[in-house]
Amino acid sequence: LKTLIHIIPTLGSGGAENVLTRLVELKKQKNLKQYILTTQGTPNDFNHEKVNKFCTVLHWVDNKSRVKEIFKENPNTKIVGWMYKGITWAHGLSFVYGHRSQKIVWNIRHSDFGPKEYYQKILLYVFGLGTRLLNPKIIYCSHRSKEGHEKAFFSSANQSVIVNRL
Fold first, then answer.
1. Rounded to 5 degrees, what are φ and ψ at 3?
2. pLDDT for 35-61, tens place per residue?
3. Which band of pLDDT confidence, cut at 50, 70 and 90, is reported for residue 138?
């Protein structure tokens, strides 16, 4: 593996964004070429300057053609979809611009939805069934998160837990 593409909604100040920032720094030390694609982010995002020191950051709105090139130029790359929006984008971009040999890793944080968040709960089960069809590698931030997702029919194959502190 020579290249890694991370897809995340924004680089704001949140749990996943902070973990990604730390991970990018660690992977840079191993001479791995990395890209971060934000689907809704801007250069003003909280973690943008931090990660921009270690890898190329592309915001979809401003860099559509460059993102297409990166997907086409890296047929054997791994793509990490951070949270559900990132996972959805990873599959979509890989399908449209990428190659079948690209491996998509699902990086899932907590999915604790309130009692009235019916739409989110339904989508959680849809994603759970999707894991049974796609059989992706899934990374959870905690054992509690893993257990909660398995209750929503997430596949128990190809899972690992990497706690937030890496």
1. -135, 145
2. 999 999 999 999 999 999 999 999 999
3. very high
Q: Is the dihedral of CA 163, 108, 105, 51 positive or negative?
A: negative
Nearest partner of 106 among 133, 79, 71, judged by Cα: 79
Two structure tokens written together for 137: 């590698």
Query: Per this entry, what is the length of the chain?
Result: 166
- The answer to whether the CB of 124 falls within 8 A of the CB of 102 is no
What values do phi and psi take at 44, rounded to 5? -90, 0
**What would the 3-class secondary structure string for the chain be?**
CCEEEEEECCCCCCHHHHHHHHHHHHHHCCCCEEEEEECCCCCCCCCHHHHHCCCEEEECCCCHHHHHHHHHHCCCCEEEEEHHHHHHHHHHHHHHHCCCCCEEEEEECCCCCCCCCHHHHHHHHHHHHHHHHHCCEEEECCHHHHHHHHHCCCCCCCEEECCCCC
- pTM attached to this predicted model: 0.91
64-104, pLDDT tens digit by residue?
Answer: 999 999 999 999 999 999 999 999 999 999 999 988 889 99
Please name the residue that has the structure tokens 């999707």: 130
